[in-house]
């Protein structure tokens, strides 16, 4: 018998509610599990409330008018609540909440509430008059906390939510000790903001003033987590209130903050870090809230782009759960039992930023679910200078959460105890249903967008009210003093003591020595790279390659594979593996995956339709034609292997790529791969690329081994689906431009490669995990090369002693001494040049060499010098590409190649002229341009 318990024994005030749910359990509802496809997470199944008893159904039928009134309060009561601390919004009259609308008049008649309301004034008989019922409904649904849950399609969830709210409406769970704790947090937060204003008055700190109750909300949530067996919390939040939470809850040393505010770096000077602003710093403390285990809170770094951290939190948490749900742990442990995701948002951003909707869209999907995230909107009722009427088209900023049918709890931030109650309700829902829940914490912003701003320029009435009122901490302090919970002297002592502590920390900041935590825990075996390692022995014994290759297409006889796959995928792969030749792209990729899995690494392959592959080439998963069962063959190599997670994503790029970045920074032992359906799809994930992937290590010392596979190549597919915009990635790379000095050390922030053979992608993928550091890898990958007969490799190319080749030397010229023109090319265009080269007269062919540049960043200057040395009589140097002149890699390679070729030579460009679009969409023009490029590259005047 499974026993439900929302809270620990420390929360005995809701024991009656727990007993009620236990009674439901004996009536037949259970929590069951199904296995996750990969990691063995046990996921709570949907459960059902017991049906109404015949007596309850009869009573509901008899009291149909009363049922309508109760349902009206549950669905629209939130419209009649006191939620605005500033009283700027008038509470409307809601006709649906008038009992007379349903023919119910105020009288002494007793109404039976069994099956209609979860509680009653007279609990023994469950009866009440209409006035008693109305008042109870007003107290429950129209106070300082409001609820939206009737939009949830699942009846069981709605009934649970209504029962929980109604049963706990008169008990906020706060005793004197918790009141004192809340006031202490509020007072310290206000003291910190005042201290910062006094000592660093010209700093934009984005303080919590006006929204101090958010710190009470987090404190309550951390306590609930600790007493419920959760040991890990992953937290993402923007700038507002970040410093307050870091200093007060997350144990960030004030001296470290003050050290940085004096203009110093937050990392040791010996480390190659560019650093970041104070509103992006982070902390990962262990917190003791009295639970069985400490609560490890990981606050992730965030960029200035609003809400971009949200999918990163989800990905980081998903990856972390892989280690929390090891197959040797408690088999009853379910997804979300040990880890929780927490995301804090701004109100204008929650409505306006598409990443919110995209991240919510991942929340209930296989391979992306975190077991429920608690969202807290710090609702200042204004975005920068934009009022709500200009910031959204919805009634509430939280309405976008209805995209995933998340329940929404609105709460007035002037009432810290009600804020804590809202968090308990949110946590209870998340704990049971393992779904996202939203708390809309309605507050205000005492200053402008930052402390240097003048908000009354645009909101004079709002700020007249704000400046005339007491702060939230002062109001709560007054309440507790009047109630006799604390004395005025105690309250003043709390503030004075914390101010004294901050003064001491400020003094200590002068001698503070920064520390770094970037290579600890799972990352302890890695180093900070000082020089790019491009060539590394990543070969694998051929018997191992054959083993994993065969396993990659092995299924049980009872599993019905599509006959075309058997004929065109499985049988050819087995044949070529046996022969050791004609290894195609998909096979080489499987060999890389399988060999890494055998070595104990885990791999996560993610993107739209990646299991099959956009071009129907990969088939990393098979679907039984009779049962539609999904089978991942590479997860059945041996009992000690790592796991391959094939995560077919929804139609999102921004959130999905952010999710995979989160996976990548959680562990160096997971190879996370995101494949765009077409290369240009990365455009809609540019925020993640700019603010995380390309710069995360420089700003925060956080390494990432994320691989981006971006199909690229001009094949008549039109403007969009041709180019991965590789030029943009190269623009973000940080390697030197002048390569004339041979002592120049390249240590790029990310690698960019355009491989042309299956063996090359095999080595690239293995190199990601075999180096003793992690760097992002951008692969401008193939489309037509996936099946091109010329683009095949042998097992010998992947055997021990082999490695990735940044440059593939020319193999077309007969005599190096006769070569007059050297053509540099990259990617699929090489094969077009090679075919056209073979069609030229012998005297022309002998005078031209074609060199493939496979890795663009870091730039392979040594390998190119070595290749040029083979052609002593070369006179012309050409970069030839199919892309337009303002796209592709030409602008990146030009200055670097010109620093290598003879000083009396210049690099000639042959390719399409500059164009606003990546390429023409007119087939005749496209073909003519391509013919002209090949003709010019291979013709002599």
From TrEMBL:
<comment type="similarity">
    <text>Belongs to the alpha-ketoglutarate dehydrogenase family.</text>
</comment>
<dbReference type="GO" id="GO:0016624">
    <property type="term" value="F:oxidoreductase activity, acting on the aldehyde or oxo group of donors, disulfide as acceptor"/>
</dbReference>
<dbReference type="InterPro" id="IPR005475">
    <property type="entry name" value="Transketolase-like_Pyr-bd"/>
</dbReference>
<dbReference type="InterPro" id="IPR031717">
    <property type="entry name" value="ODO-1/KGD_C"/>
</dbReference>
<feature type="domain" description="Transketolase-like pyrimidine-binding">
    <location>
        <begin position="583"/>
        <end position="788"/>
    </location>
</feature>
<dbReference type="InterPro" id="IPR042179">
    <property type="entry name" value="KGD_C_sf"/>
</dbReference>
<dbReference type="InterPro" id="IPR011603">
    <property type="entry name" value="2oxoglutarate_DH_E1"/>
</dbReference>
<keyword id="KW-0786">Thiamine pyrophosphate</keyword>
<dbReference type="Pfam" id="PF02779">
    <property type="entry name" value="Transket_pyr"/>
</dbReference>
<dbReference type="Pfam" id="PF16870">
    <property type="entry name" value="OxoGdeHyase_C"/>
</dbReference>
<dbReference type="GO" id="GO:0030976">
    <property type="term" value="F:thiamine pyrophosphate binding"/>
</dbReference>
<dbReference type="GO" id="GO:0006091">
    <property type="term" value="P:generation of precursor metabolites and energy"/>
</dbReference>
<dbReference type="InterPro" id="IPR001017">
    <property type="entry name" value="DH_E1"/>
</dbReference>
<dbReference type="Pfam" id="PF00676">
    <property type="entry name" value="E1_dh"/>
</dbReference>
<keyword id="KW-0560">Oxidoreductase</keyword>
<protein>
    <recommendedName>
        <fullName>Transketolase-like pyrimidine-binding domain-containing protein</fullName>
    </recommendedName>
</protein>
<dbReference type="InterPro" id="IPR029061">
    <property type="entry name" value="THDP-binding"/>
</dbReference>
């Amino acid at each position: 018998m499974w026993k439900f318990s929302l809270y620990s024994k420390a929360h005995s005030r809701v024991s009656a509610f727990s007993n009620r749910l236990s009674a439901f359990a004996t009536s037949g509802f259970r929590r069951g599990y199904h296995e996750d496809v990969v990691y063995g997470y046990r996921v709570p199944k949907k459960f059902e409330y017991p049906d109404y008893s015949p007596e309850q159904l009869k009573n509901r039928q008899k009291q149909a008018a009363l049922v309508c009134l109760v349902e009206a309060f549950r669905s629209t009561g939130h419209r009649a609540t006191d939620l605005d601390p500033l009283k700027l919004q008038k509470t409307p009259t809601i006709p649906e909440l008038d009992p007379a609308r349903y023919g119910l008049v105020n009288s002494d008649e007793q109404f039976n509430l069994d099956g209609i309301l979860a509680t009653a004034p007279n609990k023994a008989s469950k009866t009440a008059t209409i006035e008693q019922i109305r008042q109870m409904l007003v107290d429950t649904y129209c106070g300082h906390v409001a609820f939206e849950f009737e939009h949830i399609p699942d009846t069981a969830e709605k009934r649970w939510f209504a029962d929980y709210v109604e049963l706990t409406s008169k008990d906020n769970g706060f005793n004197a000790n918790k009141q004192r704790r809340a006031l202490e947090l509020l007072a310290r937060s206000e003291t910190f903001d005042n201290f910062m204003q006094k000592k660093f008055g010209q700093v934009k700190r984005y303080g919590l003033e006006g929204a101090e109750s958010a710190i009470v909300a987090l404190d309550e949530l951390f306590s609930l987590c600790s007493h419920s067996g959760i040991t890990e919390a992953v937290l993402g939040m923007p700038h507002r209130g970040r410093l307050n939470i870091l200093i007060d809850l997350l144990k960030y040393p004030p001296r470290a903050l003050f050290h940085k505010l004096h203009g110093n770096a937050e990392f040791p000077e010996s480390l190659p870090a560019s650093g970041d602003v104070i509103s992006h710093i982070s902390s990962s403390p262990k917190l003791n809230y009295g639970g069985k285990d400490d609560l490890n809170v990981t606050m992730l770094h965030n960029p200035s782009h609003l809400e971009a951290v949200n999918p990163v939190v989800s990905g980081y948490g998903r990856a972390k759960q892989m280690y929390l749900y090891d197959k040797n742990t408690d088999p009853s442990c379910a997804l979300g039992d040990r880890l929780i995701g927490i995301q804090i948002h701004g109100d204008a951003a929650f409505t306006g930023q598409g990443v919110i909707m995209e991240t919510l869209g991942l929340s209930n999907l296989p391979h992306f679910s975190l077991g429920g995230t608690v969202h807290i909107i710090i609702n200042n009722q204004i975005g920068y200078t934009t009022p709500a009427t200009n910031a959204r088209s919805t009634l509430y900023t939280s309405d976008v959460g209805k995209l995933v049918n998340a329940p929404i709890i609105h709460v007035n931030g002037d009432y810290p105890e009600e804020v804590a109650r809202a968090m308990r309700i949110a946590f209870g829902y998340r704990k049971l249903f393992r779904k996202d829940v939203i708390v809309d914490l309605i507050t205000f912003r005492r200053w402008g967008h930052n402390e240097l701003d003048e908000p009354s320029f645009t909101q004079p009435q709002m700020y007249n009210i704000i400046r005339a009122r007491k702060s939230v901490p002062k109001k709560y302090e007054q309440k507790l003093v009047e109630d006799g919970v604390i004395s005025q002297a105690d309250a003043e002592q709390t503030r004075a003591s914390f101010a004294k502590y901050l003064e001491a920390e400020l003094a200590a900041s002068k001698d503070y020595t920064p520390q770094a935590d970037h290579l600890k825990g799972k990352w302890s075996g890695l180093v900070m790279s000082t020089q790019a390692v491009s060539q590394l022995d990543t070969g694998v014994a051929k018997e191992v390659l054959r083993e994993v290759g065969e396993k990659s297409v092995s299924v049980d006889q009872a599993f019905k594979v599509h006959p075309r796959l058997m004929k065109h995928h499985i049988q050819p792969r087995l044949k070529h593996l046996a022969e050791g030749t004609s290894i195609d792209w998909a096979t080489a990729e499987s060999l890389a995956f399988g060999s890494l899995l055998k070595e104990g690494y885990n791999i996560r392959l993610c993107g739209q339709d990646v299991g099959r592959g956009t071009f129907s080439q990969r088939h990393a998963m098979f679907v039984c034609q009779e049962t539609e069962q999904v089978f991942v063959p590479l997860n059945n190599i041996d009992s000690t292997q790592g796991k391959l997670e094939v995560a077919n994503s929804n139609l999102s790029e921004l959130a999905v790529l952010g999710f995979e970045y989160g996976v990548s920074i959680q562990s160096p032992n997971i190879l996370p791969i995101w494949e765009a359906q077409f290369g240009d799809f990365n455009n809609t994930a540019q925020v993640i690329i700019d603010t995380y992937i390309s710069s995360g290590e420089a700003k925060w010392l956080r390494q990432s081994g994320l691989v981006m596979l971006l199909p690229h190549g001009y094949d008549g597919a039109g403007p969009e689906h041709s180019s991965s915009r590789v030029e943009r990635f190269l623009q973000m790379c940080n390697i030197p431009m002048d390569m004339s000095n041979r002592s120049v050390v390249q240590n790029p922030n990310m690698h960019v490669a355009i491989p042309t053979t299956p063996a090359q992608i095999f080595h690239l993928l293995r190199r990601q995990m075999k180096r003793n550091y992690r760097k992002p890898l951008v692969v401008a990958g193939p489309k037509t090369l996936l099946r091109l007969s010329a683009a095949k490799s042998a097992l010998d190319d992947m055997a021990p002693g082999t490695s990735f080749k940044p440059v593939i030397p020319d193999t077309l010229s007969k005599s190096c001494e006769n070569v007059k023109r050297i053509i540099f090319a990259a990617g699929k265009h090489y094969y077009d040049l090679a075919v056209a080269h073979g069609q030229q007269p012998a005297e022309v062919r002998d005078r031209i060499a074609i060199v493939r540049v496979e890795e663009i960043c870091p730039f392979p200057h040594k390998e190119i010098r070595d290749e040029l040395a083979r052609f002593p009589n070369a006179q012309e140097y050409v970069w030839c590409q199919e892309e337009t002149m303002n796209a592709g890699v030409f602008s990146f390679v030009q200055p670097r190649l010109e620093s290598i070729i003879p000083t009396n030579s210049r690099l000639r460009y042959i390719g399409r002229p500059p164009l606003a679009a990546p390429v023409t969409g007119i087939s005749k023009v496209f073909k003519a341009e391509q013919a002209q490029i090949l003709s010019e590259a291979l013709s002599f005047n």
